[in-house]
């Protein structure tokens, strides 16, 4: 049927700030949905409180509300706009819960607004554990034995009935929050209480745990005519017992028999068709008994999810975009597949490659946290890799993780003994895939590892193939390795750096030159959704070592944008926002924009954002071969955070133009010692400092600069391993820890300015004019990382002289560093004197916040300045802020009970929200100021 012509305007509800379990995949889905609806001439109104997302940019919707996600905010929007329908399926669990609350209060009925895509009954049926269980029983689909409990006593009673092991699943929560496994009576009390408290309706499902079974997910779409298509089948490498967000996943499913697959398809379709009023994207999870292929349903999510973003990038099928059109009445057969341009949206994707997703954790930020993986999701991000085989894809994924891995293995690091490895493998932890490989290298059998981990033998044999080839490679050096063996190694995903460790006595560059001379070079294949059965129109590529190259460079001038890799604390969604704007600005300047990134959750890796997308690790070897093929005018590193910046030196050495600020000037700002020398030359005050490479040197420096001191390594992100210490004993511990984790890194020791005010400036410089984007004042006192501080824009407690001094110093630094584009500078103010703490010659976490607060497209402007296409005088930058904007950090400490929640120089927040206030008398602000700024003198 054609679209519903009665729908003229739609409200899309976002997911709010980034937390563990709900990340930028909902920015991606919400952005796709908004674009999809506007294509149909529908007016889109959007609510979200996250300033770091492209979703909340003015260009994405007809009207954007940066408001807290509450019923009060919804009512305000409904009063100010004529809204026909609300789409709640693009904002994760947050949006579904908010829609349910608004429905219970009669808000939708009061304003004559209807829900599209899904109705309340369908939400309840999927999210309420008992209703879901009854729903499955009615359909004749098996579920694990379970009972619903609304009290602690009920839970204990049911636990005795069902028997251990158990799983506690709270209703209406996200990312497994509050859930957990119970192996004995001793663990039951705490698990029940935690689950009941986590559920907004004080309800848990006490369920028999099917630990060790295999887990599968299906991504489906359904329309109003009951047509259902399976977009992707995803297999979890980890068995049941590890949250799917923390599991390594593979697509297409590798170990599923055809009969089990057909059974799963049929049951998933039956579930969708009987869910109720539902049209759009859906995720269904199953557990399969590996002994007899018995199948049980785990859950159904009547919304797009983290897996939807992964499935979209894995297949090239724009799930959220199609789901939005289905929600307004279209049927699948009426829509076309945008990748091919010729086939219908009914055409189920077929993959002739392997996708591997590996989660990224930040346990280093949560000292003392339980690193065991279980029902509660703990990863902060993920990477996706594409290869022709599983070994190639898993090795590429490991190279993408930004944790110093150069492939699957711990090269150059201490290895565990086989007894330690066997003990380690019993418990799922973040490094289990690496430890499996270590165990196989030690000669442990596949059978033993399978018994310890319950991971399917097929995956273990694939990893064993990597091990066997690695042992063959170790018998050679670079000179003697046969060309056939070298080609096989590259086809299996071994990086040049990995091969250096195996051959010894050679450099990465030597390996590259050797294989290039043998014509062992990357070729690029297109992601086309249909295994090349139809010609694809969208330039979306991955690399492999094959004979045919499908990526043909154009003769147009082109610019490469480097992405930021996986989300992690200190480097998150804000850099995707920056990259997306960068791509648009490059295209507006007449260049072809080429995107390189490996994060499946981002808008910047959408198939139609850049002129060309390379879904590849942000890793030197991969980047260099793309540059060799495409021959760009230059590379932009300022928009991708520390990940991109780290590759600037190699680009400089290769003679590749870095668009914007030069490498040497960026290095001065990044190298804490060189930067302090620059400030000294410029006559700008800074805390006394010294540099050290050993503990003895550090003790001498600290004595000279005076305690307390701030100890930190150069070239770090998010305050990694920064410490404030007050005596020699603490200093020695801090330096030993730094040398252990970052050997050879220069250590900077600053005198710490306690009891002072912190502030920061974001600015743009074009070589002539300097423009201050915003001056932000931190509410928290010095010593708390800027990413963890509440920041107020504009500054309210600094004197005009202090603000002017900061702006004067900022311009002086920008001119000295010959900045082209963005710079962020952080200050400390004590006794009326302004000190410079650090400068970041790149986009920062605050860049999108300022752009949203003032409603100025700063990233677009900065990119054009970097390209030299425009000067600042070409733009009108009128700021529109009536009052103040506050950046509120958001934490996910609830995922790590018992960890130290005290804030310090190392960043711990996972995301942020924006809040607007009219004036400083606002009760919210007064309370915040009273709680957070107790050390500031007034």
UniProtKB/TrEMBL annotation:
Pathway: Amino-acid biosynthesis; L-arginine biosynthesis; carbamoyl phosphate from bicarbonate: step 1/1; Pyrimidine metabolism; UMP biosynthesis via de novo pathway; (S)-dihydroorotate from bicarbonate: step 1/3. Transmembrane segments: none annotated. GO terms for biological process: glutamine metabolic process; L-arginine biosynthetic process; pyrimidine nucleotide biosynthetic process. It comes from the Bacteria. One of its GO terms (cellular component) is cytoplasm. One of its GO terms (molecular function) is metal ion binding. Keywords: Amino-acid biosynthesis, Arginine biosynthesis, ATP-binding, Ligase, Magnesium, Manganese, Metal-binding, Nucleotide-binding, Pyrimidine biosynthesis, Repeat. Gene3D superfamilies: 3.40.50.20, ATP-grasp fold, A domain, ATP-grasp fold, B domain, Carbamoyl-phosphate synthetase, large subunit oligomerisation domain. Its cofactor is Mn(2+). The keyword Methyltransferase does not apply. It catalyses: hydrogencarbonate + L-glutamine + 2 ATP + H2O = carbamoyl phosphate + L-glutamate + 2 ADP + phosphate + 2 H(+); hydrogencarbonate + NH4(+) + 2 ATP = carbamoyl phosphate + 2 ADP + phosphate + 2 H(+). Residues 133-328, 676-867 form the ATP-grasp domain. InterPro entries: ATP-grasp (IPR011761), ATP_grasp_subdomain_1 (IPR013815), CarbamoylP_synth_lsu_oligo_sf (IPR036897), CPAse_ATP-bd (IPR005479), CPSase_dom (IPR005483), CPSase_lsu (IPR006275), CPSase_lsu_oligo (IPR005480), CPSase_preATP-grasp (IPR058047). Signal peptide: none annotated. Belongs to the CarB family. NCBIfam families: CPSaseII_lrg, PRK05294.1, PRK12815.1. Large subunit of the glutamine-dependent carbamoyl phosphate synthetase (CPSase). CPSase catalyzes the formation of carbamoyl phosphate from the ammonia moiety of glutamine, carbonate, and phosphate donated by ATP, constituting the first step of 2 biosynthetic pathways, one leading to arginine and/or urea and the other to pyrimidine nucleotides. Composed of two chains; the small (or glutamine) chain promotes the hydrolysis of glutamine to ammonia, which is used by the large (or ammonia) chain to synthesize carbamoyl phosphate. Tetramer of heterodimers (alpha,beta)4. PANTHER family: CARBAMOYL-PHOSPHATE SYNTHASE [AMMONIA], MITOCHONDRIAL (PTHR11405:SF53), CARBAMOYLTRANSFERASE FAMILY MEMBER (PTHR11405). This is Carbamoyl-phosphate synthase large subunit. It comes from Chitinophaga japonensis (Flexibacter japonensis).
């Amino acid at each position: 049927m054609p679209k519903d012509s009665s729908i003229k305007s739609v409200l899309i509800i976002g997911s709010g700030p980034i937390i563990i379990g709900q990340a930028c995949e909902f920015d991606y889905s919400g952005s796709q949905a908004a674009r999809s609806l506007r294509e149909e001439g529908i007016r889109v109104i959007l609510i979200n409180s996250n300033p770091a997302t492209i979703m909340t940019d003015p260009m994405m919707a007809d009207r954007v509300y940066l408001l807290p996600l509450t019923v009060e905010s919804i009512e305000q929007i409904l009063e100010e706009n004529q809204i026909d329908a609300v789409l709640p399926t693009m904002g994760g669990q947050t949006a579904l819960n908010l829609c349910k609350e608004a429905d219970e209060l009669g808000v939708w009925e009061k304003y004559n607004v209807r829900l599209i895509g899904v109705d309340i009954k369908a939400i309840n049926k999927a999210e309420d554990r008992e209703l879901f269980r009854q729903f499955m029983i009615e359909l004749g689909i098996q579920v694990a034995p379970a009972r619903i409990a609304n009290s602690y006593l009920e839970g204990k009673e049911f636990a005795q009935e069902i028997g251990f092991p158990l799983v506690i699943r709270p209703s209406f929560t996200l990312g497994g929050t509050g859930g957990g496994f119970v192996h004995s009576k001793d663990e039951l009390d705490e698990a029940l209480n935690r689950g009941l408290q986590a559920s907004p309706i004080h309800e848990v499902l006490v369920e028999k745990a099917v630990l060790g079974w295999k887990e599968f997910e299906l991504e489906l779409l359904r329309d109003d005519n009951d047509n259902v298509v399976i977009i992707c089948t995803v297999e979890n490498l980890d068995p049941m017992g590890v949250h799917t967000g923390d599991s390594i996943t593979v697509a297409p499913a590798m170990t599923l028999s055809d009969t089990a697959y057909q059974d799963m398809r049929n049951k998933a379709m039956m579930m969708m068709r009987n869910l109720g009023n539902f049209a759009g994207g859906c995720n269904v999870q199953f557990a399969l008994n590996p002994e007899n292929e018995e199948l049980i349903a785990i859950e159904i999510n009547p919304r797009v999810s983290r897996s939807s973003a992964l499935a979209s990038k894995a297949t090239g099928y724009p799930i959220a975009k199609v789901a939005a059109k289905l929600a307004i009445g279209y049927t699948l057969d009426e829509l076309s597949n945008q990748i091919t341009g010729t086939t219908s949206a009914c055409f189920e994707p077929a993959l002739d490659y392997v996708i591997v997703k590996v989660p990224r954790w930040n346990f280093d930020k949560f000292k003392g946290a339980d690193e065991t993986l279980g029902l509660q999701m703990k990863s902060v991000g993920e990477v996706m890799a594409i290869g022709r085989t599983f070994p190639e894809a898993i090795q590429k994924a490991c190279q993408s993780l930004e944790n110093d891995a150069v492939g699957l293995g711990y090269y150059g690091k201490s290895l565990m003994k086989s007894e330690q490895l066997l003990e380690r493998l019993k418990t799922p932890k973040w490094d289990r895939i690496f430890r499996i490989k270590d165990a196989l290298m030690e000669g442990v059998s596949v059978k033993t590892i399978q018994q310890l981990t319950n991971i399917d033998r097929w995956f273990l044999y694939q990893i064993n193939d990597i091990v066997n080839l690695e042992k063959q490679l170790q018998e050679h050096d670079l000179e003697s390795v046969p060309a056939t063996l070298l080609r096989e190694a590259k086809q299996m995903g071994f990086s040049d750096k990995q091969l250096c460790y195996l051959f010894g006595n050679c450099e990465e560059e030597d390996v590259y030159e050797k294989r290039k001379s043998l014509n062992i070079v990357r070729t690029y294949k297109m992601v086309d959704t249909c295994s090349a059965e139809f010609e694809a129109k969208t330039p979306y590529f991955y690399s492999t070592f094959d004979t045919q190259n499908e990526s043909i460079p154009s003769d147009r001038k082109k610019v490469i944008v480097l992405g930021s890799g996986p989300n992690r604390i200190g480097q998150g969604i804000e850099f995707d926002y920056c990259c997306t704007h960068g791509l648009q600005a490059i295209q507006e300047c007449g260049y072809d924009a080429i995107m390189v990134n490996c994060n499946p959750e981002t808008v910047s890796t959408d198939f139609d954002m850049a002129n060309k997308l390379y879904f590849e690790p942000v890793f030197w070897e991969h980047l260099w071969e793309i540059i060799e093929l495409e021959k760009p005018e230059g590379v932009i590193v300022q928009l991708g955070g520390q990940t991109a910046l780290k590759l600037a030196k190699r680009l400089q050495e290769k003679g590749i133009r870095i668009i914007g600020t030069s490498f040497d000037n960026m290095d001065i700002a990044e190298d804490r010692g060189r930067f302090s020398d620059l400030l000294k030359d410029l006559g700008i005050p800074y805390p006394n400092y010294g540099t050290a490479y050993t503990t003895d040197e550090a003790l001498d420096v600290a004595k000279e600069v005076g305690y307390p001191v701030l100890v930190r390594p150069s070239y770090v992100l998010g305050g990694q391993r920064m410490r404030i210490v007050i005596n020699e004993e603490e200093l020695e511990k801090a330096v030993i820890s730094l040398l252990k984790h970052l050997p050879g890194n220069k250590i900077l020791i600053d005198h710490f300015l306690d009891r002072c005010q912190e502030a920061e400036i974001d600015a743009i410089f074009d070589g002539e004019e300097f423009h201050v984007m915003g001056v932000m004042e931190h509410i928290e006192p010095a010593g708390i990382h800027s990413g963890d501080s509440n920041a107020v824009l504009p500054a309210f407690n600094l004197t005009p002289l202090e603000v002017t001094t900061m702006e004067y110093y900022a311009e002086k630094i920008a001119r000295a560093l010959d900045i082209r584009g963005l710079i962020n500078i952080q200050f400390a103010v004590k006794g009326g004197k302004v000190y410079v703490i650090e400068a970041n010659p790149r986009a920062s976490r605050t860049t999108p916040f300022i752009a949203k607060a003032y409603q100025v497209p700063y990233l677009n402007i900065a990119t054009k300045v970097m390209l030299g296409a425009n000067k600042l005088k070409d733009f009108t930058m009128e700021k529109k802020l009536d009052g103040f904007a506050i950046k509120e950090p958001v934490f996910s400490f609830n995922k790590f009970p018992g960890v130290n929640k005290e804030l310090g120089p190392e960043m711990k927040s996972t995301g942020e929200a924006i809040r607007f206030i009219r004036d400083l008398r606002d009760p919210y602000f007064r309370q915040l100021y009273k709680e957070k700024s107790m050390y500031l003198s007034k």
